[in-house]
Amino acid sequence: MIALTDVNSFYPSAEVVFEPHNRGKPLIVLTNNDGCVAALNRQAKELNIPRFAPYFQIKELCEKHKVIVRSSNYELYSDLSMRFASLISEYSPNVHIYSIDESFADLSGQKNLLQLGADIRRRIWTELRLPVCVGIGETITLAKAANHAAKKIRGYHGVCFIESSQQREAILSQMDVEDVWGVGRRIAKRLKLFNIHKAIDLAKWPPKHAKTNFNILLEQTVRELNGEPVKEWDTVRADKQQIWSTRSFGERITDIESLYQALAKHCAIAAKKLRDQGSVAQQLIGFAASSSFDETPQSFKILHRFEVPTNDTSVIAGAVRENIHQLFKPGVPYYRAGIGLVELRSECNVQLDIFAKDRSNPKLMQCLDAINNRFGNGTALLAGEGIEQKWDMRREYLSPQYTTNWRHIPKIRC
Ligand SMILES: [Mg+2]
Description:
single chain; alpha+beta
């Protein structure tokens, strides 16, 4: 038996964990640079604010209805997400983090699953103040369907366990086929030509037909809807093959020093990810560009090959410093920039070169990571990243980093 736990409206829910006075009020979270609506809670959806709407278009509407507006607070979301996943892992030795707010857990061999689902839900609320729905079923696809039912169908109180085939049929007949995991809108449109509208229609379709008219993945979905486990999650999360850090600027950059600072910051972010997964990179890609909406859009790119593969922030930023003149042209109003680390390999089996000097300093990097892990990101940084980052992302409505920054710890007055 598989359980899928999913946080309801994760970003808006995370925003009210430490601001409970805002709970129940309409709230939206904006994308990078406060450009568009990234996420909304139920109350904001009821005001008919569309997702992905540019903020300037709905600003008036938000002011009129006293909608609470927040910039994306990734520090808060990723920390809460980690805590959420770690709580789920206490319920099973075999869990799979599917996304920032969804985790699967294999509950095979455990009893009273409906009760267990309710316990998980209550515990995450008690300890994290995040509302979740739990769906339990015999396969990954059924767990997803149960989760959908827990969220959308009345009477489940956030927990749905598909126990019997009658219950399975009842739920699948209330579910549109496009809501089935792995179907999506495009396939659903074609399925309608076969008179398949609801999830139950798909479940009753002979798997052979799904394979011949579509593909093997849809055949697996049909089998899974009938309780036959076919899909599996990877027990180990595959390491990333490439690591990128890119972003648009809050303000256009026109000087070389600011451009270097922005790129050095991307180097620090990407190199940290590289060290976290125990990899080193052979090659660096750097780019800087004006906006594609500018009259004459311009973009520049560099490729740099390290003599010895590295994950050292200062070596990587040093390579950018050496090549910055190829990225910078006076007069270009730079809008975005970023770096990519590619040709990754494990740091344990690096081919050494007797003629090349390894300039990495792993001890210094360990020290840097230890300081930043303990005191919050950005406590220790390369001087090259700059102290006053005026080009940084626009985040006018940012909430505090309650859980990852000592200075933002909530104060309680008794
Ligand atoms: Mg969710």
